[in-house]
Every structure is written in C-alpha cells, then in structure tokens.
Amino acid sequence: MRDNCLLGTDTKQQVAAARRMLHAGQRQRKNPTMPRIHHLALWVSDLDALCAFYAAAFSARVGDRYENPAKGFASRFVTFEDGARLEFMTSRTLALPTSEPGAQRMGLTHIAISLGSEAAVDELTARLRATGVPVLDGPRHTGDGYYESVVLDPEGNRIELTV
Fold first, then answer.
1. What tens-digit pLDDT sequence spans the chain (163 residues)?
2. 36-92: which CATH architecture?
3. Distance CA 155, CA 150 (A)
4. Which DSSP state fits 12?
5. Residue extents of the structural domains in the chain
C-alpha cells in the first residue's frame, strides 16, 4: 500500500517520504511518487572482467564486491553518471544456461545506453571496434527513428549505443 503522505499535501511529509525512498548518493527525482527502475541484474561468468569493461567503455563507477560464501554468490554494481545501475552477479552453486554471444533470447535482449549524440555513437563504436569488441550492427539510422550501433560486452550481451 502506498504511503498516504506521498499523495497528501503536507510538504514536509512528502519530502521526508521521498528521502526515505532514495539511496544514499543518488540524486533526488523530480517526481518521487513515480516508480522507476532501480537496477537490472545479470548473471555473469567473469564479474571483474565485465565490471572493468563497463568502467572503461562507459565511465561507469564500479561498486564494492559483495560476497555470500555460504551461498557461493558474489555481485558488484556498476553505476552510470545519471544514477542508472547494473548489478552483475556470479554463483558457484547454480548451473546457469548460457547462450551464444549476441544470441537473441526470451527475456532481456539488450541494454540501451544513450550517449547524447550521433558523433558520440560513432566515436565509441569505432573505439570499441578498434579494441576488438564485436560490433553487430551500425552505426545506422533505424526504421523507428533511432541512431544506434549494437556491440557485445565480454559476456556476449547486446548493448545498443544510441543518441
């Protein structure tokens, strides 16, 4: 059930409720009552390599490693400049299915990262290609009006680089 103070008119209660909803270090949202995606989580094989890729390619900040030895679990968050976050997780106890790099599959099929301009898409695509990152498509204008390229991260996840 929603906290009634979010719907009421008492500004002090609204501000207090909004602050409780935010994580430390994140910017306050314009409309704190509007739900937002907090983060996406992906199972990965090489936690450190994937975090290093996102840090180098997108200037993402890599968080501390969390481990639960009893469950054979470890994870790290990468945080982008605007506060968006990805959680990368590993497990020694789960036999997780794998797909061919870049394979289309049910569920999450790509992560789209906005770079702000066509020139930025071109530049990052060229830089990643030069370092051996697979570029599956583009840069190009799509039929639905986007300018994008599609690259693969080290685990074979599709990343759309878009304006």
1. 334 334 444 555 554 554 455 444 445 557 777 888 899 999 999 999 999 999 999 999 999 999 999 999 999 999 999 999 999 999 999 887 777 888 787 678 899 999 999 999 999 999 999 999 999 999 999 999 999 999 999 999 999 999 9
2. Roll (3.10)
3. 14
4. H
5. 36-92, 107-163
Task: Output DSSP code: residue 60.
Answer: P
- Asked if domains 36-92 and 107-163 share a fold, the reply is yes
- Determine which helix (DSSP H) or strand (DSSP E) holds 62, and give its type and residue range: strand 61-62
What topology does CATH give the domain 107-163?
2,3-Dihydroxybiphenyl 1,2-Dioxygenase; domain 1 (3.10.180)
Residue type at 47? L
Instruction: Return the DSSP state at 71.
Output: G
Measured at the alpha carbon of residue 108, what is the angle toward residues 35 and 46, in degrees to the nearest 5?
110
The amino acid at residue 158 is: R
| Length of the chain counted residue by residue | 163
Q: How far apart are CA 23 and CA 27, in angstroms?
A: 9
Q: Which amino acid, one-letter code, is at 120?
A: A
Q: How many CB atoms within 10 Å of residue 28? A: 10
pTM here? 0.76
- Which amino acid appears at position 152 of this protein? L
